[in-house]
Write a structure and sequence with these properties.
The protein is built from 15 helices and no strands. It is mainly α. Helix 5 crosses helix 12, helix 11 runs antiparallel to helix 12 and helix 14 packs antiparallel against helix 15. The longest helix has 34 residues. The chain is globular and about 70 Å long. The model has no long low-confidence stretch (mean pLDDT 87). Its main location: membrane. It holds the Pfam family BPD_transp_1. It is found in: Cell inner membrane; Membrane. The complex is composed of two ATP-binding proteins (CysA), two transmembrane proteins (CysT and CysW) and a solute-binding protein (CysP).
Length: 289
């Protein structure tokens, strides 16, 4: 009888009261973490989805799949992926040089890597547009070859490479520093060449870290606005990226259109990042076998 009364009482307790009671009794570190993530991450994202949900489904789909929106997704995501992959290769190489070699002015070279972190994005765009323009230091050599970077989609790619490069280097560096040099020497003593040692001994445990750097660089490149709006011509169906299209919609007081494109950007980025996390988990399991 008593057990049945207790069960009936538990059934009457609302779910949200049970949830709040559990949260209140969590350790203070958990409570601070939940509160911070709620205010800084979950609430803004929820507000974005709620704003988009006020639109009828047909109108949402029409805005999200308009030819202009699809063209901006293409420019934004394909260019960001290509920039992140290139940085995955060259960022790893630069991290290797910084960790394994000592050379004059190494500290200055090392500090220069962080410059895209500190440089205002508008200044970065102005600098890149100047250097890669037809009259710039690098653009003047490329122009006779018919290669134009500034105010083209290639310029967007260059800007994404510039601002996302440090993410790969700074992610790979600590792992390279922790790697045991004895393992490489053991591989050499067994007759492995330097290339075989890198491919079969060093790269497998390093690969998940490189993927992490690539994912961070990709995320940064997708969200970039300040430098790209300067180095590109922002021409629709050519080099117009989605963040610039969102800003243009806001300037036209088209808040619904800006929100829909923002939601689509968020969802595509989330799917791609989940895919990269899946690759990281698969790589770790493969490495532990």
């Amino acid at each position: 009888m008593k057990a049945s009364m207790t069960l009936e009482t538990n059934r009457k307790v609302p779910f949200w009261k049970v949830f709040i009671d559990n949260v209140i009794h969590l350790p203070w570190t958990w409570r601070i973490t939940i509160a911070y993530l709620t205010f800084m991450l979950l609430m803004p994202i929820t507000a974005l989805f709620l704003k988009a949900s006020t639109l009828p489904t047909a109108e949402f789909w029409e805005i999200a799949t308009s030819p202009l929106a699809l063209a901006t997704y293409n420019v934004t995501f394909i260019t960001a992926i290509l920039a992140a992959l290139l940085n995955g290769v060259f960022g790893t190489l630069i991290a290797w040089v910084l960790v394994r070699y000592d050379f004059p002015l190494k500290k200055i070279f090392d500090a220069t890597v962080d410059l895209p972190f500190a440089l205002p994005t508008a200044v970065a765009g102005l600098t890149l547009a100047t250097v890669y323009s037809e009259n710039g230091w690098i653009g003047s050599f490329l122009a006779p070859l018919g290669i134009k970077l500034s105010f083209t989609r290639a310029g967007v790619w260059v800007a994404m490479i510039f601002i996302s490069l440090p993410f790969v280097i700074r992610t790979v560096e600590p792992v390279l520093q922790e790697m045991e040099h004895d393992v490489e020497e053991a591989a050499w003593s067994l007759g492995a060449s330097q290339w075989e040692t890198f491919w079969k001994v060093i790269l497998p445990p390093l690969f998940p870290t490189i993927l992490t750097g690539v994912a961070l660089g990709f995320s940064r490149a997708v969200g970039e606005y300040g430098s790209i709006v300067i180095i590109s011509s922002n021409t629709p169906f050519q080099d117009l990226i989605a963040p610039v299209l969102i800003f243009q919609r806001l300037e036209q007081y088209d808040y619904a259109g800006a929100t829909v494109i923002g939601v689509v950007l968020l969802l595509i980025s989330l799917v791609l990042l989940l895919g990269i996390n899946f690759l990281q988990a698969w790589s770790r399991r493969y490495d532990n076998r």
